[in-house]
Amino acid sequence: MTDKQSEILQKCARSCEKVDGCEDNNEGYRNIVFLIGAGASTSAGIPDFRSKGGLYERYGPDLFQRLTLECFPQKIYDFYRDFAKEDYAPTSVHEALVGLNAAGRLEGVVTQNIDGLEDKAGVDKNLVHCVHGSLSRFRCSRYLCEGSLTAEEYNRLLPTHETPPQCYLCGQNSLLRPDIVLFGESLDSATVGDSLRALRACDLFVCIGTSLRVQPTASMPLENVTKRAHRIWINRDPPPDMYQENGFFDLCMQDECDSAIKALFPLFFNKPSPHA
Ligand code: CNA
Question: Which of 6, 50, 118, 198 could form a disulfide with 108 if both were Cys (CB 3.0 to 4.6 A apart)?
Answer without folding.
Answer: 198
